[in-house]
């Protein structure tokens, strides 16, 4: 009789656990937690806080994040995204273009959760994606790009070697504008040329700021090489020192444009 009651009790425990699991939405991600492409949820929340504090740079824009393939063979089909912790599994909707927004969840932040994809570590390049209204499709706005840089620095979305000098730069008040750093941006399509436009003022972006360095310093740590034809850089310090405003547009001519 005692064995019978033990069996019944065990069955009730399993049934209760199954019922509890049905009330909490979960996303299954294949592979081990140590080998998934992920970022710290707390760090990305810090990037969201930076966006709110600096919203004046792009007052008509909202903040989204975006991921790109970092290597050949990385499939963007079937991506699954979640905020994952020891007791957390919050699904995050992902748009077809690889963009997403993050909800704020105090419990996940306090539990040091991760923003996690169902891809191996190092598969994806992560960026902030900030787009003001009324910007032409083949252009980007300087204030939007500067704010993307600030969010990326705060949210640990910049791929760099964790050297003490780089860590020190990342902790500065405004490294994007005060330091001559380069953040590799991705245009929507392969870039032939880019032109700064502010009213009647125009300047073609130097070719050296397109497609990245010819010889990357540390290829294993770079996240832009696979999308080299779409890469462009912006030297914010020199541009703002020369009087280019937040509303300056960077207009692209794409490689696949009609002649």
Give the arrangement of secondary structure elements.
Layout: H1 2-22, E1 38-40, H2 41-53, E2 63-69, E3 81-85, E4 88-91, E5 99-100, H3 106-110, E6 114-117, E7 124-130, E8 139-141, H4 142-154, H5 164-170, H6 175-178, E9 185-186, E10 191-198, E11 201-204, E12 231-232, H7 236-241, E13 249-254
Antiparallel strand pairs: 1-6, 2-5, 2-7, 3-4, 3-6, 8-13, 9-12, 10-11, 10-13
Helix pairs in contact: 2-4
Describe this structure in words.
The protein is globular and about 55 Å long. The chain has one domain. Strands 1-6-3-4 form a four-stranded antiparallel beta sheet. Strands 8-13-10-11 form a four-stranded antiparallel beta sheet. Strands 5-2-7 form a three-stranded antiparallel beta sheet. The protein has helices at 2-22, 41-53, 106-110, 142-154, 164-170, 175-178, 236-241, and strands at 38-40, 63-69, 81-85, 88-91, 99-100, 114-117, 124-130, 139-141, 185-186, 191-198, 201-204, 231-232, 249-254. It has 259 residues and is an alpha+beta fold. The chain is 27% helix and 22% strand. The model is unreliable at 1-31 (pLDDT under 50). The longest helix has 21 residues, at 2-22.
């Amino acid at each position: 009789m005692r064995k019978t009651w033990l069996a019944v009790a065990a069955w009730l425990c399993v049934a209760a656990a199954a019922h509890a699991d049905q009330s909490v939405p979960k996303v299954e991600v294949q592979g081990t937690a140590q080998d998934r492409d992920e970022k710290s949820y707390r760090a990305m929340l810090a990037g969201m806080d930076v966006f709110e504090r600096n919203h004046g740079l792009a007052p008509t824009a909202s903040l989204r994040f975006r991921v790109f393939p970092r290597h050949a063979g990385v499939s963007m089909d079937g991506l699954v995204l979640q905020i994952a912790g020891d007791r957390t599994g919050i699904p995050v909707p992902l748009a077809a273009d690889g963009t997403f927004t993050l909800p704020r969840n105090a419990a996940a932040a306090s539990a040091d959760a991760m923003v996690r994809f169902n891809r191996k570590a190092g598969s994806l390049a992560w960026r902030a994606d900030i787009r003001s209204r009324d910007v032409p499709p083949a252009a980007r706005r300087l204030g939007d790009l500067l704010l993307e840089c600030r969010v990326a620095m705060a949210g640990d979305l910049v791929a760099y070697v964790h050297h003490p000098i780089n860590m020190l730069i990342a902790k500065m008040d405004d490294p994007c504008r005060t330091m001559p750093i380069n953040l590799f941006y991705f245009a929507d399509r392969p870039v032939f040329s880019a032109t700064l436009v502010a009213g009647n003022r125009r300047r073609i972006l130097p070719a050296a700021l397109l497609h990245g360095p010819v010889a990357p310093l540390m290829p294993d740590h770079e996240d832009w090489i696979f999308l080299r034809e779409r890469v462009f850089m912006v030297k914010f310090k020199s541009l703002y020192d020369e009087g280019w405003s937040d509303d300056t547009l960077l207009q692209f001519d794409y490689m696949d444009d009609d002649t």
